[in-house]
Amino acid sequence: MIPFNKPFLVGKETEYIKEAVALGKLSGNGVFTKKCQSFFEEKYNFKKALLTTSCTDALEMAAILLNISPGDEVIVPSYTFVSSALAFVRQGARIVFADSKENHPGIDENKIEQLITHKTKAIVVVHYAGVACDMDVIMNIANQYGVSVVEDAAQAVDSFYKNKPLGGIGHLATFSFHETKNIISGEGGLLVINDQNFMDRSEIIWEKGTNRSAFFKGEIDKYGWVDTGSSFLPSELIAAFLHAQLENLTEIQNRRKGIWNLYYEELKFLQQEGKLKLPFIPDYATNNAHMFYLLVNNLEERDKLISFLKNNGIHAVFHYLSLHKSDYYLNNQGGTDFLPKAEYYSDCLIRLPFFYELEEHKVRLITGMIKKYYE
Ligand SMILES: *Cc1c(COP(=O)(O)O)cnc(C)c1O
Fold first, then answer.
1. Which of 86, 300, 345, 350 is least crowded, fewest Cβ atoms below 10 Å from its Cβ?
2. Closest C-alpha to ligand 1, atom 1
């Protein structure tokens, strides 16, 4: 069976873990944590980066930093992972779901303004498949109404919007290093703080509501409990693993782009023949080769193709069930939302196996099987 995903080692992961042990500090905010954070601050010019144990945790930190409280509304695309909404629901927000674009699963920038009310506190955008949302339009709307923007850049490491790195545009941004993403540490994440107003408080929330970070930097002479927070920082074991991956970012990205391009080249004639659709990348966005997906005509065809591939040793999957149709939302907040594009992607999108070690002949085997299905 060709798996859908497979975690991988690319360099010195285990060596750095041993080094972390030898350094005598395995709890968080040590040498490797700082190396990983500096990597992002230097390479992408992010004002401040804090490692977290997941993207979900980073989103929770964002919700706390924005002081989201009961009565507030947060605009979130329906076609996304649960965490993009859940982190804000935990703070008491009501979620207002936005639809996807006609030609891309990302949030439709033209459908946001109509959802804004005097209760709107934030807009969460998700760069689906690492392809940028139309950030100029979104930031203009946000600035006009005094609303904050959180980029859920879980899938968007090393991807750009008009030459600006994703994660560096919204007030806050979050990344994931879950084993299914481009850069992995098993579980893992990052909060990016671009708005100066959130800088100091972010470290406190990160360190269980204490001003311990400031203490270690010698800024204050004793530390204590000053705010809300949690234990959002990962252990040095995770940071050591992650650091080895980040050192090989270019190699990882090049290899993934090779896999993506091969999928595209092999399958584009099926798009030309009108049998299915392939991913669309707008002019303003780059492709970071996070995933390769197909869009088929309907739910029935999706299930048939997935089981055909499964019977032939290939594990392909569908993706998000639109959150506006989820049990939790319907039981607690819902909604008669009519979001046809989100439902279209829920019904018709298929993700093909995609991971660092996927060999060229396996990609050809997969595309060969898809061609066979359409014969
Ligand atoms: C993977 C993912 C998350 C969750 O990331 P974790 O690190 O597993 O918490 C959130 N949002 C999106 C869009 C994702 O793809």
1. 300
2. 154
